[in-house]
Amino acid sequence: MWNGKAVMLALCAALALAPATRAHAQQEGIDYRALVPAQPTTVGAGKIEVTEFFSYACPHCNDFYPLLSSWMAKQGKDVVLRRVPLGFERPPWVALQRAFYALQSTGDLNRLDGPLWQAIHGQHRLLFNEQSIADWVGANGGDSDKFASAFASFGVNTAIEQADKMGEDYAVDGVPTVAVDGRYVALGNEQPEILVNADKLIKKVRAERAKAAAAQKAK
């Protein structure tokens, strides 16, 4: 039988051990992990993509949600957030992975994203299969029939495949995970430290791009 609590704890384990936030320069393997090869991003030139891997089923991701939202509100216009839900082949997690893309497809994600976190972790609703989530969507102002249609659609199936492939390519073994520019994964003991290191990685990317632009201009 699936042990939900045990799986959540296992999959939400910290990705790496790192000492408390430091003032000195970041160290690879301690403050961040470099992605080799670098992964493609979906943003245009001049933008920096921050990718969050998460699951609605994960209590640590629920704690991270408001922190990330506040952090993103303070970022420059060149920083763009991409959220990627993962299921880790666990049926309840996969159902919620599908729910994210189904809500995105029906246009209800922005409105129901926060309430869905609250329903699962605040109200302890067991929204772990298509029917229960569709009923919840309908009870919260969405169209349950449209949601159910999107839930198993070709578009959502494709999005799930792409998300799972990204999880593999980024070597994600737990959530939440934060990556920057398809090249770095921010590490940390605590969630605030992960975001501090993500800030530093954003500055690192900006500096690297400026240096590359200057070198190109000098040719």
Structure write-up:
This protein has a five-stranded mixed β-sheet with strand order 1-5-4-2-3, sandwiched between helices. With about 220 residues, the protein is of the alpha+beta class. The chain has eight helices and five strands. The radius of gyration is 18 Å and the shape is elongated. Helices cover about 55% and strands about 10% of the residues. Helix 3 (about 90-105) crosses helix 7.
What is the residue-mean pLDDT, rounded to a whole number?
A: 91
Number of helices: 8
The number of E-state strands comes to 5
The span between the termini is 64 Å
Cross-sheet strand order for the largest sheet = 1-5-4-2-3
Strand content: 5-15%
Secondary-structure-derived class: alpha+beta
State the order of secondary-structure elements, H for helix, E for strand.
Answer: HEEHEHHHHHEEH
Helix content: 40-55%
Cα-atom radius of gyration? 18 Å
Query: Unreliable runs, pLDDT <50, ≥5 residues?
Result: 5-11, 13-22
Q: What is the general shape?
A: elongated
Largest sheet report: 5 strands, mixed
